[in-house]
Amino acid sequence: MKTLVHTDKEKIEEVIRACDVCYVGFADTDGTPYVLPMNFGYQDGVVYLHSAQTGRSISMIERNPRVCITFNTDRKLVAQHPEVACSFSMRSKSVVSWGKVRFEEDFDKKVEALDVIMSHYSDRKFRYGHPAVRNVKIWIVELEEMTCKEFGFSYKNKG
Q1: Nearest to 108 by CA among 94, 128, 88
Q2: Whole-prediction pTM value?
């Protein structure tokens, strides 16, 4: 099986927009890894996330704001030969990205971020209660680097 590498921004964003969940990876200052599945919004090279105000992830980000965010979609088991176990592969598309988290504290900007997140899942417009906005932690991750790959293509098939 072969892997296709994509560098086209439109293709990369197509993969991101097709995902319902992203996986956010952290490394604590002692090297301890931690990965969370999270709902997200994406706009203009920025990933928007939300969480509780406190917790393990917040503490880790305060010590080390660098994160790796992975998006994965279109998973399907494929085989070059159905009788040969090592010919099986998982066809999928993925984007791996890196950036630094900054937390947004401005009320109106938090609402804008929540709108970006909600627009990823629905075309509806939403209202937010003041206590809910005040109590949510908004993460802004400007992506510094992204890679995009498609896995599991037969060498006999050009794509």
Answers
A1: 128
A2: 0.85
